[in-house]
Every structure is written in structure tokens, then in C-alpha cells.
Prior knowledge:
The structure holds two protein chains of two kinds. Chain A is α/β, with parallel strands linked by helices. Chain A has eleven helices and 13 strands. The longest helix of chain A is centred in the middle third of the chain and has 18 residues, at 187-204. Chain A is globular, with a radius of gyration of 21 Å. Chain B has helices at 53-60, 83-89, 107-118, 123-136, 153-165, 183-200, 211-217, 235-240, 245-252; strands at residues 3-16, 25-38, 42-46, 68-73, 76-77, 90-93, 171-175, 203-208, 220-225, 228-234. In chain B, strands 6-7-8-3-9-10 form a six-stranded mixed beta sheet, with helices on both faces. A four-stranded antiparallel beta sheet of chain B has the order 2-1-4-5, covered by helices on one side.
Amino acid sequence: MSPLLDIEGLRIDIPGHAGLLRAIRGISFSIGEGESFAIVGESGCGKSLTAMSVLGLLPRSAVLSAETMSWKNQDMRMFGRRQWSHLHGLGIAAIFQEPMTALNPVLPIGDQMIESFLHHRLGNRRAALSRAGELLERVGVVPVERRLRQYPHEMSGGLRQRVMIAMALMCRPNLMIADEPTTALDVTTQVEILALLKELQADTGMALMLITHDLGVVAHVADRMAVMYAGEIVETGSVASVLTRPAHPYTSALLSCLPTRGQPLIPIPGVVPALIGELQGCIFRNRCGFAMPDCASQVPEREVAPGHAYRCLLARDDSGSTTDSSAAPLEAFQ
Amino acid sequence: MTSLLEVNNISLAFRQRTGFFSPPQLIPAVKSVSMQVREGEVMAIVGESGSGKSTLAKLVLRLLMPDTGSITIDGRPSSTLSPRDFANLVQPVFQDPYSSLNPKRTLADIIQMPLIVRGGVSAKECQDRARELFGRVGLPMRLFHTYPNQISGGQRQRVAIARALMLRPKLLVCDEPTSALDVSVQAQILKLFEELKQSFGLTYLFISHNLAVVERIADRIAVMYRGEIVEQGETAPFFAAPRHPYSRMLLSSVLIPIAGRPLPLVSRDFETSVSCESPATERPIVATRGCRP
Lengths: 334, 293
């Protein structure tokens, strides 16, 4: 079976004052029908840019190149305006972190919700409003009649995010891109929104591309994941495999800086470097506790298990491991 | 042991006009809250949006005045302190470091401002202290004369912390200081809070919605729900056995990175009296009473 979305060797360069910013440096991933795929990393690692490239919404100055970039076996690089427009909403829908800025403050949410439905000519206004009502009910934004006439400022953050989700579902997309969908929300609301996303996925069979910096969220929502650092995928595999046997030091570091009961909190020193100029070897080496001189030159790709690969000089043996002092089982929590 | 901060039975209700001619509606935000924060202790206030925790912070910071009740700081009624004395005792760190720093001033100016306003020291001393704090919060000196838009979110929060420490206050009121940050940066900032507490002998009132975060840093925890403190206690016993169903719900909402577990069920069964159409999605405006186990 061919995947819904297939990306190979994606590169994005953005020219700037200080030089060429190599924002994405050769990443590959694919998302199958109905699958949940998560991209994890800190701010500035290129997660959102990856999502934007899939949506065809890169900044004008950005230069994109890829070996493969296909949507349902069609080459996305050949897409013209009409094909992108067709893809938006019908094929791929997106929800973003800040539901206040993503919604239009001067339009009632009913009018905003039916816009793409009408644009894609899926029915008349009456059909659109009835679908909007159905979806609002489904995501728990009730009473529907009143909500459709409300403006975004009349709702709480959690409600707005529910409206965004309902809006994204209007045209029955095959893939939903959720870029930090719960980062701006309370922990309790976060759980409710994630549960809703999972339910909707089970109901509609759509695929989900989840972008987040929180491995706790990934563990509960995604099937497969990729850890991004400085524009590269440093580790990828099934969520179960990556979280129980993190092989890349960056993955382990991300795990240990999540506040978890009974575990020491170990921050990652420093920040993601600017990706300007010649970049060689492992970019994580100056923040890595296991760095060695060779890290500056070569970074082999290794495999932990079929489908679980990582990029690091450090071999990870399965008996006692070199990197997982922080990845000890976290069972003490509940 | 002496209490640095004592909050005695304070209440505040906001007045909201529903229509032009209708009388204003009273919306209670904080209802008869009492607590003590001892010197050198970290007291965490936990709850969802709308639970009144930020209103409580603003009351402590004197940004709002309570309808009833009183607040005592360092043995003196907070309302009788002069602004200068108050600023010497209590300083805030806010959630969003993007809006809490003046974009038109350099970091050096931002950090020095509280001391310049208070006066009493020479410009040289003021700058020396700012430089010292700049290093203490882990900022590289080359950023000293840059502007907020040139630094990252985590660095901005460090600037906000340095500014709060300029007057050597006893109490820092931190309102969600890490929730706008990445998890990796959050860990760095939490660590910084711990270090500064040791070296400056600080007391924190630490407000957050994430129990996993406050467990790291708090000595005691108070859980707020609909304007009331529903549970209060020492951190370790609290986490071992939270009593109130709302505390349990908050605790179970913390997502841990172990694959294959179902999402926790967020059950709001304990919301007995309901005043709006959909309890699961909208927080009631009209408060309920008697939610105690």
C-alpha cells in the first residue's frame, strides 16, 4: 500500500541577512492512511516549517528541494495554485497552536466554518451550516445554534480549539496536521482535546500529523514518531520502541527534562544553534553529554530494531545501555 | 516559624454588566481564601484557567484590591505599605515574557528600571547590580545591551527574573512562569528558580496548572477550584494521596511519556451543581457552593 504522504530528502533553505539558513536538511518520512505520526523537538528545530512545506505555505523566499514529495502518489512539487487550493481542506486540514490568532475575530464562527465547505462546492449554505452544526455538536461545543452566531472572543481557549478542530473536519480531510494543538491549554483541557482528536480519528479514519515538544502527548496519541533536531530527523520509529529504548542522546535528554514524578529533572544545556553556514557532523554535539571528537565529522545511521533508526556515533547495545540513565521506566507515576 | 505572607479570608467578586439597563452581575473570583506562606518556602497554587489563581496572585501583588479580608506581608498589613516598601518586599514574574518586557528598551534598562524608580543608589551601583544579576540568571554578558526581540523566550524569562530580583525582594509571585516555554527550556528555568531560592533566600508563591511542574519545586501546595482552596498540604503527602476529587483529576491529567497507555479519563463527576448548558466544555460563570468531599 502506498502512503498518503511520502517525503524523501526534503531540504528547505531560507536566504537571510546573515547567510543561508539551512532550516531543513534532508528529512524523510511517510504517513499512511489513518496513521498518527508525531514530530517532536524544541522550538527552532524545523517542526513547524516541515508542516508548512506539506501545506505549501512556505515563506516566498524559501527554497525547497526534495527527492520525493508526494501526496497520494502525485508529485506535490508540480502542484499549481488550483491543486494546492483543492488539497487545502479537502485533502489536508490544519489546526494551530494559538486558536485566537487562527480564527477571524470579526466573523461569527458559523461563517468561518462554512467558508471552505462552500469554496470546495460541497453543497449550499444550508448544507454547510447543518454540517457545521453536526460537527460542533460532535466536538462538544453546544448549544449549537447559539455557538454558530458567537464570535471567537466569547469563548475560552479550549472551546476555540474545539471550534478549530470542527472547522478542520468540515470537508472530511484525509490528513489533519495539528501543530502544537494543546500547548496553549491547561493540562485538563489538553487531555480532553487529545481524547477528542483520537476519537475523531477512529470515527473518520483520517491520518494525523502531530507536532509537539511534549513527549507525554506523543506517548498517548501517536503510533510512529520522529525526533527532530536542528533540521534533521535524529531518531525515528514506533512510539513504543522510541520511548522505551531511546537511542539518540537528544531523545533521552528530551525525556529527562519533562517533569515526571520520582525522576530527577535534567535540563538540556544551551539552545538549538542557528543553522547558518557549513554544518558538519552531529549538530547536537555541543549540548550532548556523550560527545567525542569524531562527532564533528561523521554521523552514521544505525538501527535499534526494524523501523527504529537513529543517527549517532554511539552504538546502543540492548543489554545495558549507554544513554538511557534517564530513560528508566517511569512506572512510579500512577 | 514566621509567616512571610498571610492571606486572611479574602474575597473578590468582579462586576459584569450584562445589559445597559440591567444591574451588574457579581462574579465571585476568589472566595474566602486563607493561607500562610512561611519564609523560605515555596507555596504552589494549582488549578485550571478560571479557578481564580491568577486573581489571587494579583491580590497579593496589590494589582487588585479585595472586597473583604486582609493580606499581611512580613508582619505588616499589605494595604498600609507604601508602594516603595511594598516593591522592596514583593516582586512579580509573569507568564508571557513576550508581553512583560518593554520592546523599546534594552535588557540593561529593563533590569535596572525597578532600582532606578526606587532610587537611593548611584547609577554605577545600579548597573553593577544589574550586571551581576544578568550573570546569575545565566545570561551571557554580550546580550546586556540588546533588545528583547533579539533573544529567545527562555532568555526573556531570565530577564524578567533578573528584573524581579533587582530590589532584593523577599517574596516572588510567579504566575505561570514556565507555561509559555518549551519543555526543555521549562526545565532550565525551574532549575534556575531552585538555585536562586538557595542563594537569595527567596520565598515563592508559584502559580501553575501543571502538577508535575510544581512537584519539582513546591514545599506546599494549595489546589484552587472555582475561587476556593479545596485542598492544601505538604507536597509529598499531597502527591501520595490527594484527597479532593479535583486534585486527583489534575494529577491524572499529567501525561507521562510511556507508550501504550490510554489517555486519562477526565471525569468531572464531582461537579454536582451545574449552572450552564454544558459542564464538560464551558466553565460555569455562576459559582457553586459546597463542593467538598
